[in-house]
Specification:
Blueprint: H1 2-21, H2 27-30, H3 40-46, H4 52-58, H5 68-74, H6 77-80
Helix pairs in contact: 4-5
């Protein structure tokens, strides 16, 4: 019985960890130096697939950091919660 209990607890722990990993992170959580802008390094922690070229293109004022507004312009609609248009039928 102890083996079943340990396995159940382990499975619950893993599912809880996965749920926490999917929790959205706020701008303030990512802005670790509290500068009001996200550096490329700060943003890569939350968005590891972000390319430097994408970051630079979104940095409209060339400050080497993204404001919340610049970040919103960078994010694809699926990440911002905006509805996406259906793909055209072929």
């Amino acid at each position: 019985m102890k083996i079943l209990s340990i396995a159940t607890i382990a499975a619950l722990g893993l599912s809880t960890t996965m749920a926490f990993a999917q929790t959205p992170t706020s701008f303030a959580d990512v802005d670790t130096d509290a500068s009001g802008e996200l550096s490329f390094a700060e943003l890569q922690v939350a968005w590891p697939d972000l390319a430097q070229a994408e970051f630079d293109a979104a940095d409209a004022d060339a400050s080497s950091g993204l404001t919340a507004e610049e970040l919103n312009g960078l994010q694809p609609p699926a990440l911002t919660g905006e509805p996406t248009a259906p793909a055209p039928a072929n």
